[in-house]
C-alpha cells in the first residue's frame, strides 16, 4: 500500500514537471509533450491504495477525471498509461483517451471524465458479476463535488434495490474546482447519504490509509459475500489546483498549507515506523517506485505519435462494411479492426 | 383501422403474419434462448410487457433475472447497461420514450457511444438501446418526438429504424449480435398496438426461423422511375400510400426505406436518384440540421449532375403540438407527400 502511494505521488510530481515543459513562461494548455488538461491527485493517494489493495484483476474499477493514483493502485499498466497521457500510439487507448479517459481491460479499469458518470457503469459491472454468479465486485470512485449528481444517487438506489456487489468511494478533498464543500452541501459527512438507500456508509477522516484499508475491507468483503453495496467517504486533500495551470486565487493560503501538513503518505510512513519498519526499508520502497516511474516516463516519451490515419479507427468494434462509400471517414477501418469481437 | 398487410420485396414465403412488436419480441426471445448473456431491462418491461409491447411475454419465459424492471432512473440503468456490456454481456436497455433521453444522455453519448473509441478499441459496448419514437397520437411535445437525427449525428452508435415486421425482426437479430451499441428506434404507430392502430403495411409475413438484415442496406419498398422518395419509419407507409394515389395520374414514385441511419446506405440513394433525377426526403424528425439535410447533401455530393429537383418534408422546427389539427399540420401526411411528389414531377 505504501509502495502504491509513493509511486502515485512521485508519478504526479514527474508528470507535473513534464507537463510544464513548453508551457512556460506563457501558459498554453495545448503546448508541450503532455497536451490538454491535467488533473493531479497528489493528496488523494490513501483512497486509491487503501481500496484497491483488496481488489483482484477481475474486479472492476471506474475512476473519475483525477484517476492516476487509482489506476496505479488497481494495477493499470504504468508504461502504457504514461504513453497514453503523452498521447502516443502505444498508449493504453492508442492516444484517443488521454489522462481523463484511461481504459485497461486487463485489470477492468475504466474512466469517465464527467463527474459521477462512472457510477452507473460500475453498477452494470456488478450486475454482470451477479448474473454470472461470480464473486467479483465493482468500485466506483467519485469526488465530493459529484455527490449531488443524479448519476451518483440513482446508482446508489439501483445498486441497493438489486443488492449488487458494488462499493462507492467518495474522495472528499473539500473542493469542487473553486467551490468549497460547505457551499454545495449541508451534509458534512457524505457517507450519511447511504442512509437514504438503506446501505452501510462509513467515513474515514484524516487521510488515514490504514483506516481506509479497514473500511474498504469491510465494504468489499460485504459485496463479495453477496451482501450488497456500501458507501465510503475518505477525507483526502487536494495539494494542487484543480488542474495544472489553476492559480487557485479562490483558495485561502491557509487551506493550502493545511493540505500540505496533513499528508497520508507521511502519516502511513510514521505508522509503519511505529510498527517496526526500518527507514532503510521505506527508502528502498521509495527508490523502487521512483525507478519504475522514471522508466515508464522515459519509455513513453520514446513512443511514436499516432499515425493521423488511425483517428478514423475504433469508432466501432465491428465497423460497417460499406464504410468507404458512406461519406464519413469515421467508419473506414473495416480491415484493421473488424474482427476484434465483442468480449474482452 | 385496416389490418390488411402488404407484400414487400423481402417478405418471403410465409403465410404467417406478425405485428411489428411481436416480430421484435420473437427475435429478442430467440437471442435470449441462444445466449444467456442477453438480458433486457427497462421501466415496465417485465410485468407490463413494455408500454408499447416491446417485451410482451418475455417475463414468463425468462424470469425476472433476465427481464428486469428497474427504478425510474435512466442514467443509472442505461449506464449499468454500458457497464454490463463492457464486461462482455449483451444487455438490451429500453428508454421508454426517446423524448426522455435528456435525463440520461451523458451515459448514451459520453459512455455508450464513446468508450470503444476512447479506449482505442480495447473495450466493446455490445448493447442495444431500444426506444419508442414518433407522434400522430396527440401526446404533445415531450412524448411525440422522433429524434432520428440526434442519435445519428453523434458518432459511435448504430441507429436502426424498422418500418415493417419483417425488417423489425431481422434488424433486431442483427442489433443483438452486433458488437457495438445499437440504438433501435421503433415507431409506436407501427407496433400493432390495440390502442394505437397501425396503418396497413407494418404487419407483414415473418419467417419463423431467425434471420439477420445487415445494417447499411436500404430497402426499396416500391420501385418507380419518376421520383425518388427517401424516408424511414412510419413515413415509409405514408409515402407508399402517396405513391399509390399518384399511380392513376401516371406518376411512378420509388420509395426507399433507409432502415438504418448509421450506417447509411448512400449507394442505394444515389442509384435511385441517378435513375429518377428527382429527390424527395420525408422525415418525422425536425427539419433543420437533420436527416433530410443529410440525405440531400449526400445526393448533391454524389449525384449532383443527375439531380434536377429536390424537396424535403419534415417537422418544420416547432415542438410537436398537442391538438389534433395542430399536430396534423406539422407532421407530413400522405397528401403532403403526394403533393410534393407531384410538384417535383412537374
From TrEMBL, chain A:
A Pfam family of the record is E1_dh
Any idea which UniProt keywords this protein has? Oxidoreductase, Pyruvate, Thiamine pyrophosphate
Q: Which CDD domains match?
A: TPP_E1_PDC_ADC_BCADC
Q: Which GO terms describe its biological process?
A: pyruvate decarboxylation to acetyl-CoA
Q: Which InterPro entries match?
A: DH_E1, PDH_E1_Alpha_Subunit, THDP-binding
A Gene Ontology molecular function term for this protein is:
pyruvate dehydrogenase (acetyl-transferring) activity
Query: This protein is called what?
Result: Pyruvate dehydrogenase (Acetyl-transferring) E1 component subunit alpha
Q: State the organism named in the record.
A: Haloferax litoreum
From TrEMBL, chain B:
Cofactor needs: thiamine diphosphate
Return one GO MF term: oxidoreductase activity
- Any idea what this protein is called? Alpha-ketoacid dehydrogenase subunit beta
- Record-linked InterPro entries: THDP-binding, Transketo_C/PFOR_II, Transketolase-like_Pyr-bd, Transketolase_C
Tell me which Gene Ontology terms the entry assigns under biological process: organic acid metabolic process; sulfur compound biosynthetic process
The answer to whether the entry has keyword Oxidoreductase is yes
Which Gene3D superfamilies does this one have? 3.40.50.920, 3.40.50.970
- Which keywords has UniProt assigned to this entry? Oxidoreductase, Thiamine pyrophosphate
Q: One Pfam family, short name please?
A: Transket_pyr
Q: Does the keyword Transcription regulation apply?
A: no
